[in-house]
Fold:
Amino acid sequence: MIIIIEIHEVILLIESRKNSRKRNAILEAMRGTKSHPSAQWVYDSLRSSYPELSLATVYRNIKLFERSGEIISVAVVDGQERYDACVLPHSHFICRGCAAVIDLDFPEDLENARDRLESEEGFKIESVCVSYKGLCRHCL
Amino acid sequence: MIIIIEIHEVILLIESRKNSRKRNAILEAMRGTKSHPSAQWVYDSLRSSYPELSLATVYRNIKLFERSGEIISVAVVDGQERYDACVLPHSHFICRGCAAVIDLDFPEDLENARDRLESEEGFKIESVCVSYKGLCRHCL
DNA sequence: ATGACTGCAAAGACTTTGCATCTTT
DNA sequence: AAAGATGCAAAGTCTTTGCAGTCAT
Structure:
């Protein structure tokens, strides 16, 4: 059942849930890593503890967590969507070599941050991407 | 033929090309729009002028342009990769309603920019994403 | 009992690739 | 001629979905 509540122009979408061991394990796995996991990563990391877990369940729960705001999508790397259970504002470094996604502080000054990351962290930064997401005037 | 040149630790990858009407048209189409097109968009917009154009050719040339730096990938929106033939630093607003990708200036101050965009452009901004791409220490 | 959750297999969507044919140099 | 470019269809990935059976309330 999906309940849609509108209060003062704010629309809340509440999906009712029952308790589920596997769902809990999926969220725990995502909260317990800084690897910014893909669905496949979560599946692989839980297979030993939950041998009958299916990849479809992981995908379904990830979408559920995303809709509820418990996790966010941080990037699509090499065709795989990557998520983060840390929803506080911060930024990321994405390595095109090993596909690692690494947490960074939210920068005060973008150019400053770039130089500092190269010298202090030893990254080679090839591009900086800033994007805002939301609704345009037309879709509001 | 692919020529790999290394000069002072900088590696250049040069792919030899022959002249091709369709390739020229693909790049022109991408340079002539601010819509941050997907491969499908480019294909659709060229079909009337090049009825025998195939989607595979569009994909192949887009990858070629990307490797050579003539275009960049700016986002994956609703599962489709979106490109930009403007490679100068700037940022984007991505609408989750209509999937529009809109050019913005590169911000000096991130929080400032957010407020200004909401009041002046009428966007509703739900998230800000900063990511750096390149090579980590390990992959260098 | 009812509604939610899951596994499995099938379907979908987007992208890449193999191969024969045609173009450019 | 040789190296590239293209169309077509097939294959590849990642993700979503339909359905029947299971679990939580």
Q: What stands out?
A: Residues 55-68 of chain B form the longest helix (14 residues). Chain B has a mean pLDDT of 93.
